């Protein structure tokens, strides 16, 4: 199928058409014309909506598809459908599966199962066997099989010597280390952010210090060992400051934040909604404002969904016993845009949702210009809308955003010669 996008404002700093309203003709998966008043023949599907914007396809750098092993929560196909619904044409999936993605054959399974789909899926491999922080995996074999980076997801590397060896090995293979920062000696049994709300609710708190100490240690180890490190889903100003200082010392380090961390704060937990139980936890209002500023001043490089599906049995329980995590692919852009609306230009927001993730991972960056492969997200950054149950295509439903009013919505995605209209 061929597509004609009508009167879309281009939001792509790399495009010669950036900030212009144009028509875009996509034929056989390639952008063949960009201009004004382009005509469609009978074999072309016209996409035309009010206030349409077009950018390079969004890329989520942190999502769980739960396959293999937890397909009742999500599988590769439903995960890709959720990504497309949220406006993403590419996803970096975490190895939090059963068994974890810690071998060549498991990486090959994900790569082969996701071929020839609209959404490009790039698996990450575990840093350590079973993500238990003890024994290094065969990273080189996994990289050759298609692993885009290496991480133990929410399991921090406690052993400093092991992290040094991992960084040195990864540097020799030009690989990226993604390492969660949490000193679990300080967070054990914690349920939410340590602060006034936790005290009021009688819940054990998770101090930001547990993250900040690990960020600081990992930066020191990076300076010692060399290599490339990405610190995912940070949740405090101090963490962002440490990372910015490390960048100023020319260390090869980047960081990310989950979209919901920019929009929600710990005061929303007063009704004990387990769908708000996430890790890192939602911080207080001041810290959320600090995170927004860190995104705006580029201390934080990417915004991710941190899509973490959970079945109802793990959420519809007492707060202390509920699993951490929310589904977020369908709402990531809307949450980030709502949080930052009027504070940051769309071009910069899209950079953190599209260009920067690919740059960090060493992937080709799609550009909206003639002759390029069509990898496009269409969206309306100003539309007001209510997120409802019908917008969920994930297998799991653990979201706090049902009946939430957002600003900004994905309209459609085009990639690999395919197109999906968002609900």
Structural description of this entry:
The protein is α/β, with parallel strands linked by helices. It has 2 domains: 91 residues, Urease, subunit C, domain 1, CATH 2.30.40.10; 306 residues, Alpha-Beta Barrel (TIM Barrel). The protein is built from 12 helices and 18 strands. Strands 1, 2, 3, 4, 5, 16, 17 and 18 form an 8-stranded mixed β-sheet that branches. β11, α6 and β12 form a beta-alpha-beta unit. α2 runs parallel beside α3. The mean pLDDT is 97.
Write the layout of secondary structure elements.
Layout lengths: L1 E9 L10 E7 L2 E6 L8 E4 L5 E4 L1 E6 L12 H10 L2 E6 L10 H10 L6 E4 L15 H7 L4 E2 L8 H13 L3 E3 L5 H4 L4 E2 L2 H6 L3 E2 L1 H18 L2 E4 L5 H12 L4 E6 H5 L21 H12 L5 E3 L27 H9 L5 H16 L14 E11 L18 E11 L2 E4 L2
Parallel strand pairs: 1-4, 1-5, 6-7, 7-8, 9-10, 10-13, 11-12, 13-14, 14-15
Antiparallel strand pairs: 1-2, 2-3, 5-16, 16-17, 17-18
Helix pairs in contact: 2-3, 4-7, 7-8
Distance between the termini: 20 Å
Give helix % range.
Answer: 25-40%
Which CATH top level class of the largest domain fits? Alpha Beta
Question: Which term fits the overall shape?
Answer: globular
- The overall number of domains is 2
* Number of H- or I-type helical stretches: 12
Task: Detail the poorly predicted runs.
Answer: none
Looking at CATH, the homologous superfamily of the largest domain is: Metal-dependent hydrolases
Task: Kindly report the CATH topology of the largest domain.
Answer: TIM Barrel
Major beta-sheet overview: 8 strands, mixed
Q: β content, as a range?
A: 15-25%
Mean model confidence by pLDDT: 97
Let me know the number of strands: 18
Rg over alpha carbons: 21 Å
Tell me what the CATH architecture of the largest domain is: Alpha-Beta Barrel
Q: Order of helices and strands, N to C?
A: EEEEEEHEHEHEHEHEHEHEHEHHEHHEEE
Class by helix and strand content?
A: alpha/beta
């Amino acid at each position: 199928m061929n597509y004609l996008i009508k009167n879309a404002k281009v939001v792509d700093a790399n495009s010669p058409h950036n900030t212009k309203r144009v028509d875009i003709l996509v034929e056989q998966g390639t952008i063949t014309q960009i201009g004004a008043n382009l005509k469609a023949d009978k074999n072309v599907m016209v996409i035309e909506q009010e206030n349409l914007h077009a950018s390079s396809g969004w890329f989520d750098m942190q999502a769980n598809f739960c396959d293999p092993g937890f397909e009742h929560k999500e599988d590769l196909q439903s995960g890709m459908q959720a990504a497309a619904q949220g406006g993403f044409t590419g996803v970096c999936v975490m190895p939090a599966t059963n068994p974890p993605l810690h071998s060549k054959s498991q990486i090959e399974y994900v790569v082969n199962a996701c071929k020839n789909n609209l959404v490009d899926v790039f698996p990450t491999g575990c840093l350590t066997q079973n993500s238990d922080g003890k024994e290094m995996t065969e990273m080189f074999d996994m990289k050759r099989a298609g692993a885009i980076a290496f991480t133990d997801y929410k399991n921090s590397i406690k052993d400093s010597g092991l992290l040094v060896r991992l960084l040195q090995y990864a540097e020799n293979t030009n690989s990226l280390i993604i390492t969660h920062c949490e000193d679990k000696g300080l967070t054990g049994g914690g349920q939410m952010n340590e602060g006034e709300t936790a005290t009021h609710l009688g819940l054990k708190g998770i101090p930001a210090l547990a993250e900040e100490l690990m960020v600081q240690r990992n930066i020191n180890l990076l300076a010692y060992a060399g290599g490339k490190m990405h610190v995912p889903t940070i949740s405090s100003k101090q963490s962002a400051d440490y990372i910015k200082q490390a960048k100023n010392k020319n260390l090869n380090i980047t960081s990310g934040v989950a979209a919901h961390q920019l929009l929600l704060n710990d005061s929303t937990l007063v009704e004990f909604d387990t769908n708000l139980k996430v890790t890192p936890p939602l911080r207080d209002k001041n810290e959320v404002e600090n995170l927004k500023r860190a995104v705006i001043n580029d201390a934080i490089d990417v915004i991710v969904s941190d899509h973490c599906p959970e079945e109802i049995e793990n959420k519809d329980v007492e707060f202390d016993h509920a699993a951490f995590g929310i589904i977020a692919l369908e709402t990531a852009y809307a949450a980030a845009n709502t949080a930052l609306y009027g504070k940051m230009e769309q071009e910069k927001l899209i950079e953190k949702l599209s260009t920067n993730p690919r740059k960090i991972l060493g992937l080709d960056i799609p550009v909206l210009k003639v002759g390029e492969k069509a990898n496009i997200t269409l969206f309306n950054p100003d539309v007001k809308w209510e997120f409802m149950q019908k917008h969920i295509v994930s297998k799991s439903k653990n979201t706090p955003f049902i009946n939430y009013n957002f600003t900004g919505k994905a309209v459609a995605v085009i990639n690999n010669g395919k197109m999906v209209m968002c609900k």
